[in-house]
């Protein structure tokens, strides 16, 4: 792996990830709650996990490759994480490399004491900041974008620890939901556009922050509210204080959380993910109807949209594909090889049901096309008479620079082909995607094309922040993005 330019690796630590964060202040055995919370957020990152606790005198950290279970269900590990405050992180990276140094929470001893940070999102100017910090003498321990935040805090001249963090965050661009553990308290913060989610909850006297509400449910905590875009909250022995240190901006929460990333039992930005997915399915059925015997979901994340499609169209919903629960998500597996294998291992046709039937398959998205190619063929092999496909998001044509694993444009099927060419490629009888306006309608909104209410850049190319690193490292790609819109 190259360390001079961490983003230019072979199949390395690319800026394409999705993570989950959790933090708790004021509970005995805080790390135990974090382990449970992270377990509920496991779908957001399966590469690595970490917990840092603070016992009032010392910080304790354990970071490991792999899942939460297997690492944080061990007594010997949990005993070494004492204290009434703790944060944790589940990480995804597109590389197979076992980069323990990049596993979060990242930790440093600063002038004000220990500083641990867990980050969901990606900074679109991390390379530029890193180069500047390097020139000023910063010595980086990892190749993660998140570490620039620590160095910016460490070198800030602002008066208080909180002001130093705010000063640091004013210099970064891109997406960040953060949990930060310091001797002065637990801090949670959402970037000015609120691109990535972050919620606050309560369990007895304890205050909790988490990427999704399912992490509150798992420990029996109650949901208080979403953090607002641009809000920074500090909780410590003196209570809870909320700051809005950034210039006010129109929120742009990620629409893809509703399409795929969040768990269907989560409430994201005040809306039930399950309900939205069903609405998307209903909208899709109105936009792209088809006469078939059965509606068949591509499990798992295609299921709620398929229910909506079935209910709206009146066509029976049936489980024509059975999914093994012992295989992880393919979309966020490290290499194409593993992805292919994952798809084969993961799904099997319910042949007795499918034989002789015309079906419409419902999936949430087509990214590289790996899943669709396999599944359509699997349905034909099982004897389906006609195989149509409907997708509960618009064509994914652009890469995400804000923390989601969409590959570079060259590997996005929809960036390379027309819908008709995609239909031919996946060998379906017909193929249709929901429109971007239909997707907003499913969320109860009318998309404002001049000021979209959400980040929908992977469908529209309308990126809500500057992409400084891309513009500087690959001006051609940057210009191509503008031209493609
Ligand atoms: O076009 P592709 O590159 O194959 O990517 C798209 C597929 O990946 C995701 O599913 P995945 O199997 O990862 O997870 P899920 O079980 O949550 O649906 C997504 O739901 C699509 O099915
Ligand atoms: N996907 C994420 O949100 C990960 C956070 C951070 N960019 C990292 O590389 O670890
Ligand atoms: S580009 Fe797509 S996946 Fe990334 S934050 Fe925006 S909507 Fe979400
Ligand atoms: Mg899927």
From TrEMBL:
Family, similarity comment: In the C-terminal section; belongs to the purine/pyrimidine phosphoribosyltransferase family.
Domain Glutamine amidotransferase type-2: 19-238
Cofactor info, note text: Binds 1 Mg(2+) ion per subunit. Binds 1 [4Fe-4S] cluster per subunit.
EC number(s) given by UniProt: 2.4.2.14
Protein name as catalogued: Amidophosphoribosyltransferase
HAMAP family linked to this entry: PurF
Catalytic activity: 5-phospho-beta-D-ribosylamine + L-glutamate + diphosphate = 5-phospho-alpha-D-ribose 1-diphosphate + L-glutamine + H2O
Catalytic residue positions: 19
Positions bound to Mg(2+): 301, 363-364
The organism of origin for this protein: Sphingomonas telluris
Binding-site positions, [4Fe-4S] cluster: 254, 400, 455, 458
Keywords: 4Fe-4S, Glutamine amidotransferase, Glycosyltransferase, Iron, Iron-sulfur, Magnesium, Metal-binding, Purine biosynthesis, Transferase
CDD domains, A to Z: GPATase_N, PRTases_typeI
Gene (name only): purF
């Amino acid at each position: 792996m190259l360390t001079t330019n961490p983003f230019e690796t072979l199949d390395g630590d690319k800026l394409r990830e999705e993570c989950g964060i959790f933090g708790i202040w004021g509970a005995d055995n805080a790390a135990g709650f974090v382990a449970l919370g992270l377990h509920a957020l496991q779908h957001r990152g399966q590469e690595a996990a970490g917990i840092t606790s603070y016992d009032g005198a010392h910080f304790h950290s354990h970071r490991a490759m792999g899942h939460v279970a297997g690492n944080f269900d061990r007594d010997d590990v949990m005993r070494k994480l004492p204290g009434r405050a703790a944060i944790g992180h589940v990480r995804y990276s597109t590389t197979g490399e076992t980069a323990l140094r990049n596993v979060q929470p990242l930790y440093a001893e600063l002038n004000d004491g220990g500083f641990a940070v867990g980050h969901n999102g990606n900074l679109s100017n991390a390379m530029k900041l890193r180069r500047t910090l390097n020139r000023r003498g910063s010595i980086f321990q990892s190749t993660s974008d998140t570490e620039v935040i620590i160095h910016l805090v460490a070198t800030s001249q602002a008066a208080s620890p909180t002001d130093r963090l705010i000063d640091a965050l004013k210099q970064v661009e891109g997406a960040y939901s953060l949990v930060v553990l310091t001797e002065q308290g637990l801090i949670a913060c959402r970037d000015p556009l609120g691109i990535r989610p972050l919620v606050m909850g309560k369990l007895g006297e304890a205050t909790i922050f988490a990427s999704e509400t399912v992490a509150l449910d798992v420990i029996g905590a109650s949901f208080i509210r979403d953090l607002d875009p641009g809000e920074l909250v500090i909780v410590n022995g003196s209570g809870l204080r909320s700051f809005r240190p950034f210039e006010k901006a129109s929120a742009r929460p990620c629409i893809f959380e509703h399409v795929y990333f969040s768990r269907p039992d989560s409430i994201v930005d005040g809306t039930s993910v399950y309900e939205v997915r069903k609405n998307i399915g209903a909208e899709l059925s109105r936009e792209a109807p088809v006469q078939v015997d059965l509606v068949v979901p591509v499990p798992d994340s295609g299921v709620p949209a398929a229910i909506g499609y079935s209910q709206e169209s009146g066509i029976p919903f049936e489980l024509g594909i059975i999914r093994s629960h012992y295989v992880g998500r393919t979309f966020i597996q490290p290499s194409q090889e593993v992805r292919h294998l994952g798809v084969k291992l993961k799904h099997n046709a319910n042949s007795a049901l499918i034989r002789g039937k015309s079906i419409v398959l419902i999936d949430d998205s087509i990214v590289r096309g790996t899943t669709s190619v396999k599944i359509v063929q699997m349905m034909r092999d099982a004897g389906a008479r006609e195989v149509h496909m409907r997708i509960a998001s618009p064509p994914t044509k652009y890469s995400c620079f804000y923390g989601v694993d969409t590959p570079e444009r060259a590997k996005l099927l929809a960036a390379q082909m027309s819908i008709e060419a995609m239909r031919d490629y996946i060998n379906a009888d017909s193929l249709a995607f929901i429109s971007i306006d239909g997707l907003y309608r499913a969320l109860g909104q009318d998309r404002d094309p001049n000021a979209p209410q959400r980040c929908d850049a992977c469908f529209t190319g309308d990126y809500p922040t500057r992409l400084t690193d891309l513009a500087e490292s690959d001006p051609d790609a940057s210009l191509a993005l503008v031209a493609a819109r």
